[in-house]
Design a protein that fits this description.
This protein is of the alpha+beta class. It contains 14 helices and 27 strands.
Length: 612
């Protein structure tokens, strides 16, 4: 008996120790997670994203569930400003934003596909409402992937749009098409009261229908009323969840969001010319859980203000351009010396916007070269900065073994706001010349053939042979005949703050001054400027050089001075998508809720948002 008692007590102690170890391990892991999270606060949002948010201990004893409510055409700012008491009632336990982002595509299908697959249109290729040419076989609805990991998941989808039901419900156990929003709400309430499904999706369309009929803003009574009606339906759905007999044994994540906004002309004071002023892309996103603390994700800082007057440089037939005289242009033949060129630019739209609103195919905006463009059988030494898709590129050519030159592409940058483009040519101790490119002070070179910021290299680019860009071409700003592609090659830009140094500027100096509207003698390399054209005269045909060279530009062609007051160095659309929730984040958030690890082979574009 004593032996039995001893063994029994020893077993209890062992179990107790195992339990303590488990708790301590959990606390240790949580502490480690918080250390990692704290250290990551000093890094960009688009760095390493945790696979799952930290769960409280109670989650282990509750069954995870998701209610996913989609409001087509609901602009985030309109939902925020309307009488949406039920939606706002979720915020005290939510991660939320009124400035989340959909795709700029003005259709439902692209945005739905982002929300349901976890990848963006560059991958799923859903570009039109008929889903023609989609790659959903390669990037399927996230439910299909979840079912592979956990076949026991029961998933239900209810939609008012046939396109949604027929194309984006693969992997569901229940998929129903319902006539209208009120019928949809009633069916979902009935389902939630009795069914055991782990995920329940509802796609509502009345807000968008109202927007299409009258306009996408609360100033239109029918649009505002549709938002208020939707809010009441959200209240009924949340009540159905909380009224479930098994609710206390369940762990619900309630997602309320819009697929996209809709067309509306903002008042000038509200238009910051960034993606956040694209009313079609303005959505709202709420991730609600009883264990979340209120976590508001606001509109990020978008840059400094730049104010002045600038010439609008246009392509053929206006041919707006400026030249430095031949004799003074020789000052910009640097031989094998180091040099740096930077310029501020604000893109408008080309004549042909088939590739995108600010998509260009190869026109030069400034340079020192007789003929712009790629290669050529005869020597064409020099350099020029060209617009390249949504990005820019440096064309350089000349010198021994560099007769055909290279095109070196920088990062993309948005239109209708000001940006800084800088390149540095530097000879290093190995005897080779290298190039560095900076966009708004961010170093990066992209492959010349890709359309987006894929495979960014932070390395300096070694130039072929022994480059020498010297020539007898005048220093030029604006239009130049050369390698362009019809209306996509028609420049429509404003330029300012063109600076040339006879030095390879240090990276920290470039970063410090890239987003400053102006420089003066306090700049550490002021005395090495060999060209400084603020280009802000506001009148006349001369762009004054404020450096010791006094190499003024004389303007030709059609030239109009225009007043501006805009942001400078606003983040690109690609980067903005990491600063606020976007549609493709939702599948990743659901994976995290069910503790399903995302797999690299899936190629997901989303991130997980974590409560404060």
């Amino acid at each position: 008996m004593m032996i039995y008692s001893f063994r029994k007590n020893r077993m209890k102690n062992k179990l107790r120790n195992m339990k303590n170890f488990k708790v301590q391990s959990y606390i240790g892991a949580a502490a480690l997670f918080m250390v990692i999270l704290a250290s990551s606060c000093n890094k960009d949002f688009d760095k390493v994203i945790p696979e799952a948010p930290e769960n409280s201990a109670n989650v282990d004893f509750k069954v995870p569930k998701v209610l996913f409510i989609i409001a087509d055409g609901a602009r985030g700012s309109s939902v925020r400003d309307a009488a949406t008491d039920n939606i706002k009632g979720l915020l005290s336990n939510a991660i939320y934003s009124w400035n989340s982002l959909g795709d700029v595509a003005e259709n439902n299908a692209t945005n739905w596909a982002d929300m349901m697959t976890g990848v963006k249109k560059e991958k799923h290729n859903v570009l039109t409402e008929d889903f023609a040419g989609s790659k959903l076989a390669d990037y399927p609805v996230i439910f299909k992937r979840m079912k592979v990991i956990n076949p026991k998941l029961r998933i239900a989808s209810f939609a008012t749009s046939a396109g949604f039901k027929n194309n984006l419900t693969e992997g569901t156990d229940v998929s129903e098409l319902v006539a209208d929003d009120e019928s949809l709400k009633s069916r979902m309430v009935q389902f939630l009261q009795t069914d055991t499904a782990s995920i329940v999706v509802g796609e509502f369309s009345a807000i968008q229908k109202a927007g299409m009929a009258v306009g996408f803003d609360n100033k239109f009574a029918d649009y505002k009323a549709a938002i208020v009606d939707f809010d009441k339906r959200v209240g009924d759905l949340v009540a159905a969840v909380k009224g479930r007999p098994t609710y206390n044994k369940e762990n619900w994540l309630i997602i309320v969001t819009s697929n996209r906004g809709g067309a509306f002309t903002l008042p000038p004071a509200e238009d910051d010319k960034t993606l956040f002023s694209n009313t079609n892309a303005n959505t709202f996103t709420i991730f609600h859980s009883e264990r979340f603390k209120p976590t508001f994700i606001g509109k990020p800082f978008l840059g400094n203000t730049f104010t002045g007057k600038a010439i609008r440089f246009l392509g053929d037939p206006e041919k707006t351009q400026g030249f430095v005289t031949q004799s003074l242009s020789s000052n910009y033949n640097f031989g094998e010396d180091d040099f740096t060129v930077s310029v501020k630019i604000k893109k408008g739209s080309p004549k042909d916007t088939g590739g995108g609103k600010y998509w260009y195919e190869w026109p030069s905006i400034l340079g020192k070269r007789n003929n712009v463009g790629w290669g050529g059988s005869s020597p064409n030494p020099g350099w020029d900065i060209c617009l390249f898709y949504n990005r820019w590129r440096l064309m350089e050519q000349g010198g021994a073994d560099n007769q055909n030159g290279e095109e070196i592409a920088g990062l993309d940058f948005s239109g209708d706001t000001w940006h800084d483009l800088t390149f540095v040519v530097e000879k290093k101790t190995d005897g080779k010349r290298y190039v560095r490119l900076y966009t708004d002070g961010v170093k990066g070179i992209t492959p010349a053939g890709s359309g987006e910021n894929n495979n960014i290299s932070k390395d300096d680019r070694a130039l072929a042979g022994k480059p020498n860009f010297d020539n007898d071409a005048p220093m030029r700003v604006g239009f130049q005949q050369g390698e362009i592609n019809g209306g996509k090659g028609y420049i429509n830009v404003q330029l300012a703050e063109l600076r040339i140094w006879r030095k390879a500027l240090a990276e920290n100096v470039i970063k410090q001054y890239a987003c400053e509207p102006f420089i003066d003698s306090s700049h550490p390399d002021w005395n090495l400027l060999v060209g400084y054209w603020p280009m802000n005269e506001g009148t006349g045909d001369i762009l004054k050089d404020q450096s010791v060279m006094a190499a003024d530009f004389t303007l030709q062609g059609t030239r109009n001075w225009e007043q501006f007051s805009d942001l400078i160095c606003s983040p690109s659309n690609t980067n903005l998508g990491t600063l606020v929730p976007k549609n493709s984040d939702i599948p990743t958030q659901m994976l995290s809720w069910f503790n399903i690890a995302r797999q690299e082979i899936w190629g997901l574009d989303g991130r997980v948002w974590i409560s404060n």
